[in-house]
Amino acid sequence: MRVQLAFVCLFAFSVGYAFALPFLGTPFTGHDFYGRSIHLAAPEFTLEDLDGRAFGQADLTGTWTYLMFGYVDCDGLCQSQVLVLHQLRQALAGEATRFVFIAMDPVRDTPERLRQFLGGGADDTRVLRGATMGAVQAVARAWRAGFSRGPGTGVRDGTGTGTAIGNEYRIDHPGFVYLVDPGGVIRLVYAGRALRADRLRADLLSLKQQSF
């Protein structure tokens, strides 16, 4: 029994450490939030949206922004986070909030696939792409969310049919979701495939109250 308890504690510590590791050296705060509370200026970057318009760090200012990195053929993590952000968008109806999705796989994730992947949230999400995966990797590293292309099998076609496609590979990534304040400062970081929209909403409202 003690061995099992020790294993559970070790596993919980490992998960928490893995989440915090990319942000070591950043000023964590002591507030009680659902997400990991930090205070870090959003890194500079420039990518293009699906209409070819440039979008960068300066465009994150002016309103609260949720930003995530993802790709269509993800193993379920990206899909669950997209769903939660869609639920959050509905729960925040009337609140000035921006949603940004940075596509990690510009080779396979065409604008058409990305619009299909995001479904009803595509019109309300600024979807960004890079000319190459390397360009997006550079942005991700600046956000401390570095990812790498690795081997994979059974890659889906992004339509939910389970159909395999050519050029199969997976992308290993941490799956962070960032909340950036109107001043362009990252305030909270979330991770995992079991996020709750109501808790994200509570965090946002709490931060807004503190800003007054």
Written account of the structure:
With 212 residues, this protein is an alpha+beta fold. 32% of the residues lie in helices and 24% in strands. The strands form 2 sheets. An 8-stranded mixed sheet has the order 1-10-9-4-5-6-2-3, with helices on both faces. Helix 2 crosses helix 5. The longest helix has 19 residues. About 16% of the residues have low confidence.
List the keywords:
single chain; 212 residues; alpha+beta; 8-stranded mixed beta sheet; two-stranded antiparallel ribbon
Précis, in short:
The chain is an alpha+beta fold and 212 residues long.
Task: Break the fold down into its secondary structure elements and pairings.
Blueprint: H1 2-20, E1 36-41, E2 46-49, E3 54-56, E4 64-70, H2 77-91, E5 97-103, H3 111-118, E6 125-129, H4 133-142, E7 148-150, E8 170-172, E9 176-180, E10 185-191, H5 197-211
Parallel strand pairs: 4-5, 5-6
Antiparallel strand pairs: 1-10, 2-3, 2-6, 4-9, 7-8, 9-10
Mean pLDDT: 83
What's the number of helices?
5
Query: How many strands appear in the DSSP assignment?
Result: 10
Strand content: 15-25%
Largest sheet: 8 strands, mixed
Strand order of the largest sheet: 1-10-9-4-5-6-2-3
Radius of gyration: 17 Å
